[in-house]
Amino acid sequence: MSITETAIASAEAHSAHNYHPLPVVVATADGAWMTDVEGRRYLDMLAGYSALNFGHGNRRLIDAAKAQLERVTLTSRAFHHDRFADFCTQLAALCGMESVLPMNTGAEAVETAVKTARKWGYRVKGVPDGMAKIIVAANNFHGRTTTIISFSTDPEAREDFGPYTPGFEIVPYGDLTALREAMTENTVAVLMEPIQGEAGVLVPPPGYLPGVRALTRERNVLFIADEIQSGLGRTGRTFACEHEGVVPDMYVLGKALGGGVVPVSAVVSSQKVLGVFRPGEHGSTFGGNPLACAVALEVIAMLRTGEFQQRAAELGEHLHQELGLLVGGGAVEEVRGRGLWAGVDIAPALGTGREISEKLMDRGVLVKDTHGSTIRIAPPLVISKEDLDWGLEQIRAVLRG
Ligand SMILES: *Cc1c(COP(=O)(O)O)cnc(C)c1O
After folding, report:
1. What gap in Å lies between CA 288 and CA 262, rounded to an integer?
2. Which of 141, 151, 239, 308 is an active site residue?
3. Residue 383 confidence class, pLDDT cut points 50, 70, 90
4. Percent of the chain scored above 90 by pLDDT?
5. DSSP string covering 323-373, please?
6. Which ligand 1 atom is nearest residue 226's CA?
7. In the predicted model, is pLDDT for residue 400 greater than 90?
8. Catalytic residue (choose from 226, 249, 345, 369)
9. Is the pLDDT at 401 greater than 80, yes or no?
10. Interatomic CA distance for residues 376 and 345, integer angstroms
11. In angstroms, what is the span from residue 164 Cα to ligand 1's centroid?
12. Taking the CB of residue 64, how many other CB atoms lie within 10 A of it?
């Protein structure tokens, strides 16, 4: 057996099979490139589902992490630490909001948003106890906890994991009439991804997000934007909501916030909304720890200049132009997305998304399939135009067969 096969067999023998990774064993990575245990190089066109927006081993982020490692890494929130105030102040400013509640993973931040909305509903809106409803969209992906999978429409995510948490209403994504009809006096929030990533990088019809904003405002309902994957530069703006001129009541952030170094997530909102919490009502041992704050502060500083957003916009335009040329030729049925983010529906006759991903891997390009014959492309925002073009050339070659 090769080194790769041995490593994979050993991993399979000693780990739960809750993933089906491509057969590549990464040993090192730098920028947009990864190198496997046998020295083969691969262009990373997934970027950890946007957790690696700034690339692998980003010097500024690694230096920030190293410096903090030598100072203090964890205090728990039982004590203050000297990076916390800066992190919260600067993240709130980046979001144009007032208040931050830090957690670690995306799912925890979504759980935090759900708890915030419910408590806001009871204490501020005046919803009768136990009656709060949150409206979500079909084909959503918000994480993997038992409550979050309770409002998933993906049978793989749900089956055998019940009983499910009540209090959620599912409406078709992009349908304002359905949303209006689902709203009642007890609706406390609408929780949505401004672009549905896992569903295949689905961009809602123009006017949908402003419509959600108007409806939620009119009905005194919180609009919670899950920008864990779409936010922090990926689409060519700091937030995907900006493309439609929409400001939600709450951002849910994760992935790129930790710079690909440590898990950092947060809920960002107004004082009025996050002010519903009292000590002891919610928390996390690692949430807002000094190392997380130090890395995230560097991420925020990098986003403040706008250079990564601009890069994503410019390279994204090129990416979508090139992918667009493939549509109609028989191999590609549709391309969606914004910025350096694309969902590509391959003609099923050419193979499943998995088979296409494996062929791309053989050519040194790593992508991830999602439902059926869709592959998604989301390279680090630091990718060079030359590398992007090389990756596109490999995609064209695979689609030519
Ligand atoms: C990845 C993701 C999550 C969950 O984040 P984890 O860190 O994996 O828990 C939630 N929402 C969206 C939109 C995501 O892309």
Report:
1. 11
2. 141
3. very high
4. 97
5. HHTTBTSSSEEEEEESSS-EEEEE-GGG--HHHHHHHHHHTTEE-EEETTT
6. 13
7. no
8. 226
9. no
10. 9
11. 19
12. 22
Mean pLDDT, the chain, integer:
97
Question: What DSSP designation does 202 have?
Answer: B
Rounded average pLDDT over 300-315: 98
Q: Average pLDDT in the 362-379 region?
A: 94
Which residues approach ligand 1 with their CB closer than 6 A? Answer: 49, 105-107, 110, 141-143, 193, 197, 226, 228-229, 254-255
* CA nearest to 174, candidates 189, 194, 198, 154: 194
Distance 157 CA to ligand 1 centre (A): 13
Same fold for the pair 3-57+307-399 and 71-304: no
Q: How far apart are CA 261 and CA 294, in angstroms?
A: 11
Under 8 Å between Cβ of 25 and 7: yes
Q: At residue 371, does pLDDT exceed 90?
A: no
Q: Is the pTM of this model over 0.90?
A: yes
Give the 3-state secondary structure of residue 249: coil
Q: What torsion do the CA atoms of 180, 183, 185, 190 make, to the nearest 10 degrees?
A: -110
Query: How much is the pLDDT for 247?
Result: 98
CATH of domain 71-304: 3.40.640.10
Domain ranges of the chain: 3-57+307-399, 71-304
Instruction: Assign 59 a pLDDT band (cuts: 50, 70, 90).
Output: very high
Residue with tokens 């993933």: 19
**Assigned CATH for 3-57+307-399:** 3.90.1150.10
**Distance, CA of 322 to chain centre:** 24
Residue 328 binned pLDDT confidence (cut-offs 50, 70, 90): confident
Distance, CA of 295 to chain centre: 18
Residue 336 amino acid letter: R
Tokens encoding 107: 């799912």
The pLDDT value recorded for residue 24 is: 98
